């Protein structure tokens, strides 16, 4: 994986608020997509990855939504609760 792909994957990982098993599964799926894109565009830079797959937080949200609606809602509630607790 190129440096640009690794950087993009790292940024997406920061936005994946879920358990380790789910995160690993989603990152494996992302790695496959990035590898396919890299084969088609080996010289692609970070901006091209973001243009193709979306900004990292948006890509992470899309990946999380693929887990299923009930699991995605549970993760979202935990995230909102955590942020609320952090600012109290």
How would you describe what is shown here?
The protein is mainly α and 88 residues long. 78% of the residues lie in helices and 0% in strands. Helix 1 crosses helix 4. The relative contact order is 0.16. The model has no long low-confidence stretch (mean pLDDT 85).
Largest sheet: none
User: For the CA atoms, what is the radius of gyration?
Assistant: 14 Å
In terms of DSSP E residues, the strand content is under 5%
Bin the helical content.
Answer: over 70%
Q: Structural class of the secondary elements?
A: mainly alpha
> Outline, from the CA principal axes?
elongated
Number of helices: 5
Please write the string of helix (H) and strand (E) elements. HHHHH
Q: Low-confidence parts lasting 5 or more residues at pLDDT below 50?
A: none
The number of distinct structural domains comes to 1
Provide keyphrases for this structure.
5 helices; 0% strand; 88 residues; mainly alpha
In short:
The protein is mostly helical. It has helices at residues 3-14, 20-40, 46-53, 56-65, 69-86.
List the helices and strands and how they pair.
Layout: H1 3-14, H2 20-40, H3 46-53, H4 56-65, H5 69-86
Helix pairs in contact: 1-2, 1-4
């Amino acid at each position: 994986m190129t440096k640009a792909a690794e950087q993009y994957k790292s940024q997406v990982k920061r936005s994946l608020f879920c358990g380790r098993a789910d995160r690993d599964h989603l990152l494996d799926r992302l790695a496959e997509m990035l590898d396919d894109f890299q084969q088609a565009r080996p010289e692609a830079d970070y901006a091209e990855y973001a243009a193709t797959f979306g900004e990292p937080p948006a890509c992470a949200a899309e990946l999380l939504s693929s887990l299923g609606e009930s699991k995605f809602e549970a993760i979202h509630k935990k995230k909102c609760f955590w942020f609320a607790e952090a600012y109290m």
